[in-house]
Write a structure and sequence with these properties.
single chain, alpha+beta, Cytidine Deaminase, domain 2, five-stranded mixed sheet, 5 strands, binds 2'-deoxyuridine, binds zinc ion
Length: 136
């Protein structure tokens, strides 16, 4: 699947966003090793902090369905922003752990602007599982 198609999946995923507080809908589409796509949307909460971003919804959904960390091919993220939307810091940390530094991250907006980056570019000098191994 090409990244344009993956972005279309993210746009579809965004339609399910539960956003009564911010009104800011985000969609994500995570491509697994078999070419299947896992949708994520942001899901907000009246207590605010329990809310979840679209990117983590997609990753957690795929992991919960039995896909192994480090086996994903790419993720596309989209929002109705002037510039292609960028994942928050928490999602960058989870992307690093579950998708690895080299995975492509495709950022988009509803105007059709697309930017391609990687997890490493989004989170340089990342803290990760290897740092905990040093303590064993
Ligand atoms: O990359 C992003 C940035 C923000 N949000 C969500 C969190 C919150 O529900 C709303 C406003 O921050 O957008 C995402 O899902 N992904
Ligand atoms: Zn996030």
């Amino acid at each position: 699947m090409d990244y344009g198609q993956l972005m279309k999946e993210a746009i579809e995923a965004r339609k399910a966003a539960y956003i009564p507080y911010s009104g800011f809908g985000v969609g994500a589409a995570l491509l697994d090793s078999k070419g299947q796509v896992h949708h994520g949307c942001n899901i907000e909460n009246a207590a605010y902090s329990p809310g979840n971003c679209a990117e983590r919804t997609a990753m957690f959904r795929a992991i919960a369905d039995g896909h192994q960390p480090g086996t994903f091919q790419a993720i596309a993220v989209v929002a109705d922003t002037e510039e292609p939307v960028a994942p928050c810091g928490v999602c960058r940390q989870v992307l690093f752990e579950l998708c690895g530094p080299d995975m492509p991250v495709i950022l988009g907006n509803l105007k059709g602007d697309i930017r391609q980056t990687t997890v490493r570019e989004l989170l340089p000098y990342a803290f990760g599982p290897s740092h905990l191994e040093e303590q064993k």
